[in-house]
Automatic annotation (TrEMBL), chains A, B:
<feature type="active site" description="Proton acceptor">
    <location>
        <position position="311"/>
    </location>
</feature>
<dbReference type="Pfam" id="PF02277">
    <property type="entry name" value="DBI_PRT"/>
</dbReference>
<dbReference type="InterPro" id="IPR003200">
    <property type="entry name" value="Nict_dMeBzImd_PRibTrfase"/>
</dbReference>
<dbReference type="InterPro" id="IPR023195">
    <property type="entry name" value="Nict_dMeBzImd_PRibTrfase_N"/>
</dbReference>
<protein>
    <recommendedName>
        <fullName>Nicotinate-nucleotide--dimethylbenzimidazole phosphoribosyltransferase</fullName>
        <ecNumber>2.4.2.21</ecNumber>
    </recommendedName>
</protein>
<dbReference type="InterPro" id="IPR017846">
    <property type="entry name" value="Nict_dMeBzImd_PRibTrfase_bact"/>
</dbReference>
<keyword id="KW-0328">Glycosyltransferase</keyword>
<keyword id="KW-0169">Cobalamin biosynthesis</keyword>
<keyword id="KW-0808">Transferase</keyword>
<comment type="function">
    <text>Catalyzes the synthesis of alpha-ribazole-5'-phosphate from nicotinate mononucleotide (NAMN) and 5,6-dimethylbenzimidazole (DMB).</text>
</comment>
<comment type="pathway">
    <text>Nucleoside biosynthesis; alpha-ribazole biosynthesis; alpha-ribazole from 5,6-dimethylbenzimidazole: step 1/2.</text>
</comment>
<dbReference type="InterPro" id="IPR036087">
    <property type="entry name" value="Nict_dMeBzImd_PRibTrfase_sf"/>
</dbReference>
<dbReference type="GO" id="GO:0009236">
    <property type="term" value="P:cobalamin biosynthetic process"/>
</dbReference>
<dbReference type="GO" id="GO:0008939">
    <property type="term" value="F:nicotinate-nucleotide-dimethylbenzimidazole phosphoribosyltransferase activity"/>
</dbReference>
<comment type="similarity">
    <text>Belongs to the CobT family.</text>
</comment>
Length: 345, 345
């Protein structure tokens, strides 16, 4: 982050016609984005784009979720037809939606909003060995970087992360455990709805995945981060990590959605710690691993409404809040300009 | 609330292409608004209007805030010129802004966005006797009802509460204490920024106000609620209570801002308990009395970002979230219509 822009942003906040600090966490959002962009006020984060990275997971075979795998491809079709919750939230926020096939276990027909970057027909079962080869993970990251680069080239000034992948909270839990050192029991959640027996199995599968792949805790080297991401991640996690890196490289803010994005951001941060400066936590999901990830990333969620849907829905809800925080820096009068008496010190 | 619309809304939520309950608190928002409107899906809460009720307070003389009283009228001018944080947030959310002079201690020039309903040049000092006569309080309520009615007649389909009044968190604390029975020490906060000595004085003033006016705890009769509101409230509290009643009468949702709105909603609820069905808590402010008020009202805040500004800023931030919650009911595909496989029971 640019320390001069940060200092300028803080000083500007204090000149505006409001009590100092009275916008709470939103003041920090504006200051953070000024530091990331290297300019005060930071650019308005509009227009924004949601990229939903869709992929399947070999670990689905272990019964970690009651949802059939084909729901991934069905929901991709639903997004492309405009019928998902993410579509409704995006329409409300004036955000456009791109769906990226990064590894769905089916061939998809062409569609205007679909970007085809399939690395494979779903990952391998992470509880039996590496989910991806290191080469696959690297190619998924590269695809994410390119998606971000292309969207920014087309005019996007804010990137929102989205995901679709039945069983992807299992891979997320494994990634969060690997990158933070937390116990699988602490970071595994009930995803989009599993019963007690399935939950116990899911925790066991995460534990097994870490053991089988020889992952204790990811080291601080990029090569180790890539190995861990390949071993226990998903195609969408790798691609979202790349999308974050691509947004950061373009100095465009990235609003993270829930636990899948949080897990991907941990991988991105391991590859390039400075990338996190460009990230905002859109929301806190109901998944316990998400809170662990956010704490490790040092991010504070903007929305906290017990969502557990994914798709980018939490990131979309946060977008108007981020815009509001930045707009204050552009439009609000100062005590001087408005002739408002300042509080005596 | 209409039980049939509530049941229909819950059933519709469960048919949509998302795991049951996965939109967390936003599902409850949509269900609540269906019940309040008596129709499923509930109407989109657009266009929305923010009404900022501005007034001064005799208790300012007791030194409960470091801000000079003239800041109220200066900020009214700032809102009318479009320079306040509320203006920036409203512009972001596509919400129009109306300022109502319900009791500013100065004469205001005409302006297109200003509604003149002045009841007096500030209230009397609530720590010495009643802040308002019962007649003044009733007229302020009536003004609020009429503002709501007029805005709805002009097309508003969502009303957001706003306030401006230096020292109005002192009256809010007294109202919250009176309507909930909480101790003044529990519900008095630091407002827009007071030091320890001022804070102690402020708590003492609230305690004195309740004692001097013979208010222990407001009874359940409307006449007593009106007496308490007049004794320790402000013109803007009374007007906002009326604005809530007016919105409820028109079956239009009312998004409450912070502690001033929370205190006013307690008065509105005492006058007509069913009015609360039409209210949503936009946010939770940093003021301790606000949390006490929300608990008493049974409302869950949508935004929780440590704002302590007032003006309607917290309500404005919540508006896109409320729209998103309702839009889901109108636009998201069902499992049947989208051909998505439902989770086996």
């Amino acid at each position: 982050a640019d320390p001069r822009a940060v200092a300028e942003a803080r000083a500007h906040q204090d000149r505006l016609t409001k009590p100092k600090g009275s916008l709470g966490a939103l003041e920090e959002v504006a200051v953070r984005l000024a530091g990331a962009a290297g300019v005060c006020p930071p650019p308005m984060p509009e227009p924004a784009v949601l990229a939903i990275f869709a992929a399947d997971h070999g670990v689905h075979a272990r019964g970690v979720t009651p949802w059939p795998q084909e729901v991934t491809v069905q929901m991709v079709a639903n997004f492309l037809a405009g019928g998902g919750v993410a579509n409704a939230f995006a329409a409300q926020a004036g955000v456009s939606v791109t769906v990226v096939d990064i590894g769905v276990a089916a061939d998809l027909p062409d569609a205007p909003a679909l970007v085809k970057r399939k690395i494979g027909y779903g990952t391998a079962d992470l509880s039996k060995g590496p989910a991806m080869t290191v080469d696959q993970a690297a190619r998924a990251i590269e695809a994410g970087i390119e998606v971000a680069r292309d969207l920014v080239a087309q005019g996007a000034r804010c990137l929102i992360t989205g995901d679709m992948g039945i069983a992807n909270t299992t891979a997320s839990a494994a990634l969060v455990a690997a990158f933070t050192g937390a116990d699988p029991g602490e970071v595994t959640g009930r995803g989009t709805g599993v019963d007690d027996a399935t939950y116990e199995r899911k925790v066991g599968v995460v534990r097994e995945a870490l053991r089988v792949n020889g992952v204790t805790r990811a080291g601080s080297e990029a090569s180790d981060a890539l190995r861990v991401l390949a071993a226990v991640g998903g195609f969408e996690h790798a691609a979202i990590a790349g999308y974050i890196l691509g947004g950061a490289a373009a100095r465009v803010p990235v609003i993270l959605d829930g636990v899948i994005a949080g897990a991907a951001a941990l991988a991105a941060a391991a590859l390039d710690p400075a990338a996190v400066d460009h990230c905002l936590a859109g929301h806190r999901s109901a998944e316990p691993g998400h809170t662990v990830a956010l704490t490790a990333l040092g991010l504070h969620p903007l929305v906290d409404l017990e969502l557990r849907l994914g798709e980018g829905t939490g990131g979309l809800l946060a977008h108007p809040l981020v815009c509001a925080a930045v707009r204050v820096m552009h439009e609000v009068a100062t005590f001087d300009s408005a002739g408002v008496t300042e509080k005596p010190v």
